[in-house]
Write a structure and sequence with these properties.
This protein is an alpha+beta fold. Helix content is about 55%, strand content about 10%. The chain has helices at about 1-15, 20-40, 40-55, 90-95, 115-135, 145-150, 160-165, 185-200, and strands at about 60-65, 65-70, 100, 105, 140, 180-185.
């Protein structure tokens, strides 16, 4: 499909060279539009462009099964959560890592960017704290939920699950206890901001 388009583009370039220099750009534009209207490949490109423009006009929002998937806006962030933006983190960074699905905050990434089980577990704890804190202002997470996420990301180490939290107690406001709810310390919030930046870099 695109081979024909490539041949036609080469012909256009040859034709444009015959025009005076001041008219070459306009000539190329006119002939290119004509190709895009006439060829299947051109129509595909044009349709994709139109689709993208529509998505941008709608604020990159789409409907899927009745749920709205959209960007996170500043007013979606609790007042306390907005303080994260002062830690070398932008709203754009947050939107590159997460999106809204109705009232739920979901990740856009698949890779935690770590090969270490201990690091992955802590990252998942920070992510869970962010998903809760963005709405409530309280950066807390349920260790049971983190355990479930560790299983999803294949980084659950039953024998060392508690140890990994205890080794990074500087990030949390309380000691780990089984099936507990933990919160982030001020250091934990800084680590969370750094994590989001790292996930989108």
């Amino acid at each position: 499909m695109f081979e024909k388009l490539e041949q036609q583009l080469k012909k256009i370039i040859e034709l444009v060279k015959l025009c005076p220099a001041n008219l070459q750009e306009k000539c190329f534009e006119i002939l290119l539009v004509k190709i895009l209207d006439d060829t299947d490949a051109g129509k595909t490109i044009k349709n994709e462009k139109q689709k993208k423009e529509v998505q941008e006009e709608q604020g990159e929002m789409k409907e899927e099964g009745g749920a709205k998937e959209e960007e996170i806006k500043l007013n979606d962030l609790h007042v306390k959560a907005r303080k994260l933006l002062g830690q070398n983190l932008s709203l754009s960074d947050i939107n590159n890592a997460f999106y809204k699905d109705g009232e739920e905050i979901k990740p856009l990434f698949d890779d935690l960017k770590s090969s270490k089980i201990s690091e992955s577990q802590i990252k998942l704890a920070l992510i869970e704290a962010f998903k809760n804190g963005i709405k409530t202002g309280d950066f807390k997470f349920d260790t049971t939920v983190v355990k479930q996420q560790c299983e999803v990301y294949k980084c659950y180490d039953a024998g060392n699950f508690a140890t990994y939290f205890k080794n990074r107690k500087d990030l949390f406001g309380e000691e780990y206890t089984r099936n507990s709810v933990m919160s982030l310390s001020s250091e934990g919030k800084k680590e969370l901001a750094n994590l989001i930046k790292d996930l989108v870099s």
